[in-house]
Amino acid sequence: LQAEMRDRQATWYPPACHLALVETSHTDERRAGQACSGAVEVLRAHGLEVRGPLPAGIARLRGQHRFHALVRSSSRAPLHRGLAAVERTERQWSQPGVRLVLDVDPQSFA
User: Helices 76-93 and 29-45 sit at what angle, rounded to 10 degrees?
Assistant: First the structure.
């Protein structure tokens, strides 16, 4: 257990940090990717570390193209402020029909 905790601290994974997963999906791959990029820009503007956007592990599911971005923060408050900004500004960077999911403390990245 101690070795696992050291590894998580060194690689900055929970409980050493807080995570959120941003997922966008749409029948049009380009629209899904552009929307995820827009969300990432907002999060980075709020000083958060973001990995992505990338196609999801299962990139196409039930006819929807999916993109993910992983957000990391040392504390919950900045993470929640950034996610709130994504929700607040969604109409500025997204397109009609794009589905946005914000998952705090995600259990899976598929």
Answer: 130
